[in-house]
Amino acid sequence: MIIYEKVNFLSGQNMIPENASMEKDLVQLKERVEEMSLDLRNIVTLLQSPQRSISRRGVLFDLLRDEAREKALMRLDAGMAKRCDMRKDCRQRFVGLLDDNLNLLERPRITEEDIRSRLDNLQSLRTEAVPGRCDGCFDEMGSLFQQQLELMRSLKLYKGREDVLNGIEGLPENEVVRDLLEPLSNVQRMVILKALSKIPRSFSELSSITNLRGGNLLFHLQRLTASEMISQRSGRGEYALSERGMRALEMVSDMYQRTSRFEKTRSFEENL
Predict the structure, then answer these.
(1) Which of 115, 171, 175, 252 is deepest in the core (most CB within 10 A)?
(2) What is the DSSP letter of 105?
(3) Which domain holds residue 31?
(4) Mean pLDDT in runs of 10 for the chain (272 residues)?
């Protein structure tokens, strides 16, 4: 919610075209954007397809970034003040901020901290602006920032505060506890998952790592197998971490680091 309030502040709806020439530019821009929209939707669909190879996805991300950049530059050029001796310098700095946002598309996940830091950069730039004179340009920049957030959402790379809260509301409690929390709520099972995070391991190797023998180890392996966190290769072969198990570990790691940072920050603030 905080990020949305900042974006709304930076993208107010008070921009008024300076003259008829700007109105003509906006009409032409709208026509061009409509032409590009279908291409963007097709690229997004391809990126979300699980059948695409990693190399193919890399090419598609490059296409998407280039297309989104072209679209943003067209809007920026049409929306910025035409008669201003600061236009060239401001445009260069705006483009740098927009490119920095688009570089986030290469990441597997975009966090609140990523977005917040870029909003802070935009807000810092706005503190140097001349009140009244620069409002229109910053309104347009804020609007472009909002569009980039929506692109990140459509690619499922970023979830804002509101998205997270909506997701929490829809959680199926029984399934979450049974299939996710309960399998992870045991020290020995966490040891097993961590041991399998890099390479598959045999029963004897896991026995040595966990100090569990026979039926005790088998119980935990069966529990993790039933929840699809791990799988066993060829009957009595090695145990390997599944994609589901890797995502669960990544989630736990991220949650632990985020909550640890929060506790450290709060402790530091309390001691000031």
Answers:
(1) 115
(2) G
(3) 2-165
(4) 50 48 59 53 51 52 80 87 88 91 83 86 87 86 88 77 71 84 90 93 94 94 93 84 90 79 46 47
- Cα separations in angstroms, 155 against 10, 128, 149: 24, 33, 10
Residues 35 and 122 in one domain: yes
Q: Cα separations (Å) of 100 from 7, 94, 95, 96, 105?
A: 16, 10, 8, 6, 10
| Nearest Cα residue to 186 out of 135, 140, 230, 220 | 220
- Note whether 18 and 112 are same-domain residues: yes
Is residue 260 located within the same domain as residue 159?
Answer: no
pLDDT tens-place string over residues 105-120: 887 778 888 888 888 8
* Distance of alpha carbon 88 from alpha carbon 119, whole angstroms: 21
Considering its fold, how many domains does the chain have in total?
2
Claim to verify: residue 135 and residue 248 sit in the same structural domain: no
Shared domain for 161 and 184, answered yes or no, is no
Claim to verify: residue 110 and residue 158 sit in the same structural domain: yes
Report if pTM > 0.85: no
Q: What span, in angstroms and rounded, lies between the C-alpha atoms of 88 and 69? A: 18
pLDDT digits (tens, 9 = 90+) for 190-204: 999 999 998 999 999
Distance CA 248, CA 229 (A): 8
Using CB atoms within 10 A of its CB, is residue 234 exposed (0-12), middle (13-18) or buried (19+)? Answer: exposed
Q: Are residues 53 and 152 in the same domain?
A: yes
At how many degrees (to 10) do helices 135-154 and 87-103 cross? 10
- What is the Cα gyration radius of the chain? 25
